[in-house]
Amino acid sequence: MTKRWLASFWLLAILLPWQAQALIIEITGGSEAALPIAIVPFGSEGFSAPEDISAVIQNDLSRSGRFAPLPEGDLISSPHEKSEINFKDWRLLRSEGLLVGKVSSVDGETYQVQFQLFDVYKGQQLVGKRYQVAASGLRRLAHQISDQVYQALTGEIGVFSTRLAFVSVMDNVDGSKRYTLQVSDSDGANPRTVLQSKQPILSPNWASDGERLAYVSFENGKAEVFVQEMRSGRRNSVAAFKGLNSAPAWSPDGKKLALTLSKAGNPEIYVLELASGKLSRVTHNSQAIDTEAVWMPNSRELLFTSDRGGRPQIYRVSADGGRAKRVTFEGRYNASPDISSDGQTLAMVHGLNGRFYIAVQDLDSSAVLVLTETGRDESPSFAPNGRMILYATEENGHGELAGVSVDGRIHQRLGESDRDVREPAWSPIRK
Amino acid sequence: MRLLKLTAGLLALLWLSACTTLGGSKESDRDAANSDVVVEDRNADTSGIDGENASGSDIDGGAETLVIAGEDQFQGGDVLDDPNSPLSNRVVYFEYDSSTVREEDLTTLEAHAAYLGDNPNVTIRLVGHTDERGSREYNLALGERRALAIRQTLMLQGASVKQFQVTSFGEERPDVEGHDEAAWQQNRRVELNYVGR
Q1: Helix (H), strand (E) at residue A2
Q2: What domains does chain A contain, in order, with CATH numbers?
Q3: Closest alpha carbon to A228 in A172, A165, A271, A307
Q4: B contacts of A354 (beta carbons < 8 Å)
Q5: Which of A290, A378, A391 to mutate to test the interface with B (most CBs of B within 10 A)?
Q6: How many CB atoms neighbour CB A18 within 10 A?
Q7: Of chain A residues 77-106, which have a CB less than 8 A from chain B?
Q8: In this structure, is residue B66 part of a structural domain?
Q9: Among A181, A385, A422, A202, which residue's Cα sits nearest to residue A297?
Q10: Has residue B112 been placed in a domain?
Q11: Helices first, then strands: H and E counts in chain A
């Protein structure tokens, strides 16, 4: 255990001497309707587990804004399994859910973890499982347990075991900048640099397998699109034509990329088939900027930003080309579309009097709801369950990431003090 | 271990690309210096400020430049090195969300067009930029549109299409760090960089 920790420490020290601390997630506004839940600290039979699993779960659920974990002092006893629970006592607390569990060491390297979630009123188990994991997998397991608790109590898919990609920018001593593409857990923990460059990095976008990232890098002096495999670190340039190569967006099947290319003299949307390299042009509007394509979950259509009407607005077009239909009408500036996984809700940057907010639009009713307040917000990215939107904002003169629920009630900030963070991309659910 | 090797390879690659970009950052340092000159121009009588800049220590610098220019096979006393020439203006600015060339930049652009027309072997790199507001990807495209608008103006006045390289950095390379209109108006710009100079 210690040896492995040391080894990974040295690896990190060699590769990432500038690795900064994890993002700190702070809930800046919660929902009144947060559900109380009792989380009993997991038992660990006289040894100290390398990861406090119940604390990770408690943070996850609390951060979602959907749950209000009871303070530890309010818990009436410390059961670790069903036989130790007196449901009649627990009913006195106003908490419907009760989570208990324990961790035991199998051989010092491997741990056995079990958890059970109960409906206190019915005295019934809602979900319960037992796992064997290596020490290094404990934190990820905790997030998976959070996902199961979340799903059992809300009926929606949990996204705690997903990851975030984002770009971080630091100033070097000589005044130049250092750009890094980072991937962290959904709670901002375990940030890891997957690419660093002296030139800007933009627009990371996850493939649906959660194993590949497409992004824009200026490492060759201009905007070019790269695809990088997360496990191997292997990367390929996929678009380096004359002019702009930018705004990559994976098709839902992970086989194609929608891109913005200006090789024909003007920014247009193209679709690139990765295996064959076949490129097909989607938009034909030589006077306008067409960019920021995103795939509808039906795989047949794209949403994109265009100023063909004079100002940036969001349009919808068949991925095979053809006539584009305008989607946004409220306000003079709507850009950076992202779409919820059910294809129902559009998230975008909404300009109002020279300030920029994150807004959502229902695609059926066209009703627009502005979710944020600072006026310096950009780059919205949906959580894969469609409940939260991660975005970039500016606070005290530097870039930060923040989250907001689609109803605008829950606000989170992922703060850091020593560098600019921007361009968030929420990963799909790992299969 | 395999991962380590790959990552090491990647790092080596990045190191290389970092080295190749060093030249680029030098270039932009020089542009920054040029744009400082233009900044002063914008708020004052052009000829007066140019005269001031040309006096004093700048003359020594000019003498040195002559020698280096000779080695670079540019004629000594090249009009590009003349601080009193409108060619010394290497940055033009834009209104918010606009790629329309401003009237006050036309003299500068006429001079560059004439120079390019007279020197068909000279290449110029137009680098478009925007302020930080709104979508980064849209701004990347807007920066390119601004650079293309400058190219169009120069071509209408005698430069040929082969003489241009066009790039955009969108909002990624502000000239002035800051989050107010004073900074934004300095950042909405196209830089005119003569290649090899």
Answers
A1: helix A2-15
A2: 18-154 (3.40.50.10070), 163-426 (2.120.10.30)
A3: A165
A4: 96, 133
A5: A378
A6: 12
A7: none
A8: no
A9: A385
A10: yes
A11: 4, 30
* pTM of the full structure: 0.82
Give the rounded distance of the alpha carbon of A267 from its chain centre. Answer: 28
Task: Kindly report the backbone phi and psi dihedral angles of residue B10, in degrees, each rounded to the nearest multiple of 5, phi listed first.
Answer: -60, -40
The reply to whether B136 touches chain A by the CB within 8 Å rule is yes
d(C-alpha B154, C-alpha B18), whole Å: 33
Higher pLDDT, A260 or B77: A260
Question: Measured between alpha carbons, how far is A27 from A404 in angstroms, rounded to an integer?
Answer: 10
Three-class secondary structure of residue A326 per DSSP: strand
Please report, for the domain that includes residue B115, its CATH number. Answer: 3.30.1330.60
> Do the domain assignments include residue B51?
no
B14, A195: Cβ pair inside 8 Å?
Answer: yes
B152 at interface of A, judged by CB pairs closer than 8 A: no
Instruction: Quote the ipTM score.
Output: 0.89
Rounded to the nearest 10 degrees, the angle between the axes of helix B2-42 and helix B46-54 is 120
Q: Render pLDDT for A341-390 as a digit per residue (tens, 0 to 9).
A: 999 999 999 999 889 999 999 999 999 999 999 899 999 999 999 999 99
In chain A, which residues have their Cβ closer than 8 Å to the Cβ of B166? 243
Contacts of A199 in chain B (CB under 8 A): 17, 21, 24
The domain tally of chain B equals: 1
CB atoms within 10 A of CB A27: 16
Domain span at B146: 25-41+90-194
Q: Cβ–Cβ of B141/A378 closer than 8 Å?
A: no
Cross-strand bridge partners of residue A193: A182
* Helix, strand or coil, per DSSP, at residue A189: coil
Question: What residues are paired with B189 via a beta bridge?
Answer: B93
Q: Which of B11, B137, B172 sits opposite A292 (nearest CB)?
A: B137
Q: Is B33 on the interface with A (CB under 8 A)?
A: no
A389, A429, A411, A3: which is closest to A211 by C-alpha?
A429
User: Which residues 301-340 of A are in CB contact (within 8 Å) with B?
Assistant: 305, 307, 311-312, 333, 335-336
Q: Is the pLDDT of residue B73 over 70?
A: no
Per-residue confidence band for B26, with pLDDT thresholds at 50, 70 and 90: very low
Alpha carbon B129 to its chain's center: 10
What does the pLDDT read at residue B44?
31
Which ranges of A219-340 would DSSP assign to H, the alpha helix?
Answer: none
Contacts of B173 in chain A (CB under 8 A): 200
| DSSP three-state, residue B91 | strand
Tokens of A265: 């003299």
Give pLDDT tens digits for B140-197: 999 999 999 999 999 999 999 999 999 999 999 999 988 899 999 999 999 999 998 7
Task: Please spell the DSSP secondary structure of A350-371, one letter per residue.
Answer: EEETTEEEEEEEETTT--EEE-
